[in-house]
Write a structure and sequence with these properties.
single chain; 266 residues; alpha/beta; seven-stranded mixed beta sheet; 31% helix; globular
Length: 266
């Protein structure tokens, strides 16, 4: 599967990249309003921002398939992870702003959603499960770190400007207090705004894999795009290393600390 990449490391750290993909299979792209709109909510350049992770010994699981095709960070049953709040579904039919992604009458039906689940969703989660199992056999505890980004202003999803660092541990259920505290203290020591379990508490990856009692501690990090790219540009943003460097340095220290803390846990 050329769209699914697993880079194996030996450290007690698994990095998930579910929303950086820009691949739209032809049979799906033909039904969409436009490629540009379909990629509007991509987690732009997150794979490049975190390209240091392999050097830390982390295992990286990455999908090249766009979240518009299927969102591998949603409940596979289709149930909302944020009941009562605006969100997008397993196979989104609108952007975060509420704009239709598909031409009229071309939205995926139940059969097509099931096909996409079997083709893309299940293999991604199988890969995550296999790597969790492999790493747990080698370490008493591991951290699953789920990487995300989002525009700083999305009025349909949240009011005002989003904090730059948005930590999600499913209300403390997906990671031990010491892991959660490490992340919060690191963010508090940075020069940017942060929040714990605010608008984004962690998606399906964090919620399904996080099991502190079994030695698996899952954390989602949702970064507001202004923290590492120029959000004022029209269309797909350009990655500027000079703009991204401060965030990369912070994230390198954070993931190093998470790796070392997991290694020290009994």
């Amino acid at each position: 599967m050329t769209w699914l990449t697993v880079t194996r490391g030996d450290a007690p750290l698994l990095v998930s990249m579910p929303h950086t993909g820009t691949t739209l299979p032809d049979g799906i792209e033909n039904d969409l309003v436009s490629r540009e709109l379909a990629l509007h909510d991509t987690d732009w350049w997150i794979d490049r921002l975190y390209d240091f992770a392999a050097g830390l010994g982390a295992t990286i699981v990455h999908t090249a398939i766009s979240r518009t095709v299927i969102d591998v960070n949603r409940d596979p049953s289709g149930a909302s992870l944020y009941p009562g709040q605006a969100t997008t579904g397993l196979c989104p039919v609108t952007t975060f702003d509420g704009r239709p992604l598909y031409r009229p009458g071309r939205e995926p039906d139940a059969g097509e959603i099931e096909r996409r689940k079997q083709t893309y969703f299940t293999p991604y989660h199988d890969a995550l499960a296999q790597e969790v199992s492999r790493l747990r056999k080698a370490h008493p505890a591991i951290v699953v770190y789920d990487c995300h980004s989002i525009r700083s202003f999305v009025p349909r999803l949240f009011d005002g400007e989003l904090p730059i660092l948005n930590i999600g541990t499913n209300g403390g259920l997906s990671a031990a207090p010491e892991i959660e505290r490490l992340v919060v203290e690191a963010c508090a020591g940075s020069s940017v705004s942060h929040v714990l379990n605010g608008r984004f508490k962690g998606g399906w990856i964090t919620r399904s894999l996080g099991n502190p009692a079994a030695g698996v501690h899952a954390v989602q990090m949702e970064i507001a795009c202004r923290g590492y790219i120029d959000e004022t540009e029209e269309g797909a943003p350009v990655y500027d290393p000079a703009v991204a460097t401060p965030m990369r340095l912070f994230l390198t220290d954070l993931l190093t600390s998470l790796r070392d803390r997991a290694a020290a846990m009994a």
